[in-house]
Amino acid sequence: MRKIAIAVLGVLLAGCLASVAWAQGDRGTSSITLKGKTVSVDYGQPSLHGRTTDEMLGKLPAGGFWRMGNNTSTTFKTDIELAFGDVKVPAGVYSIWMQKGDDGSWKLVFNKQHGQWGTDHDKSQDFASVPMTGATGGESVDLVTITLSKSGGSGTLKVQWGSLEESASFKAA
C-alpha cells in the first residue's frame, strides 16, 4: 500500500511540475556578433494555445506597452553602440518593449531598467524608441520568437507571434 501511495504522489508531483513549467513558459535567446562584439536578447515565450494574436494583443490600447514575451521583461544586451536609424543605443543592458501606435503600428522601446517583472514598465526609464516595420503573409508562429540576424555590419531584430511580424534594423555605430 505504501508503494502505491508513493507512486501516486510521484505522478501528482510530476503533473504539478509540468503545469508550472507550462504556465511559466520557456525562455528564448538569440545573439549575433558585430565587429567582434555580442548583441543578444533573452525573452519569455508564451504560446497562443489556439488563440489569435488579435485576441492577445488586441486588448492592448493605443500607447500601451507589451513586454514582448512573458514573466520577466525582455532583456536586450549589446557590447557595442548600435544605431537604429538616427537613434543611438549605447553598449549596455536594457529591457525592451513594444509600444502600440494609434494606427496599429509598433515602436521598439529601450528602457534603462532590466530584470523587472514584465508588467512593471516604468515609462520614465525609457530613453529611446524606434519605429518597427510590419510584414504580412508570413508563417504563423505559436510561441513568441525574437530573432537577431546579421548581414555584414548590420543586424535586424524580428519579433513574431501568431500573425504579428515586426522588425527593426540596426548597425554597429
Structural descriptors:
173 residues, seven-stranded antiparallel β-sheet, alpha+beta, 13 strands, six-stranded antiparallel β-sheet
Protein architecture, described:
The protein is 16% helix and 48% strand. It has two helices and 13 strands, in the order H-E-E-H-E-E-E-E-E-E-E-E-E-E-E. Strands 1, 2, 3, 4, 7, 8 and 9 form a seven-stranded antiparallel β-sheet that branches. Strands 5, 6, 10, 11, 12 and 13 form a six-stranded antiparallel β-sheet that branches. A hairpin with a 5-residue loop joins strand 7 and strand 8. About 12% of the residues have low confidence.
**What is the first-to-last residue Cα distance?**
69 Å
- Sequence of secondary-structure elements: HEEHEEEEEEEEEEE
Tally of structural domains: 1
How many distinct beta strands?
Answer: 13
Which sheet architecture does the biggest sheet show?
A: 7 strands, antiparallel
Write down the overall mean pLDDT: 88
Oligomeric form: single chain
- Rg, rounded, reads 19 Å
Beta-strand proportion:
over 45%
Globally, the shape reads globular
Helix content: 10-25%
| Low-confidence regions | 5-24
The secondary-structure class comes to alpha+beta
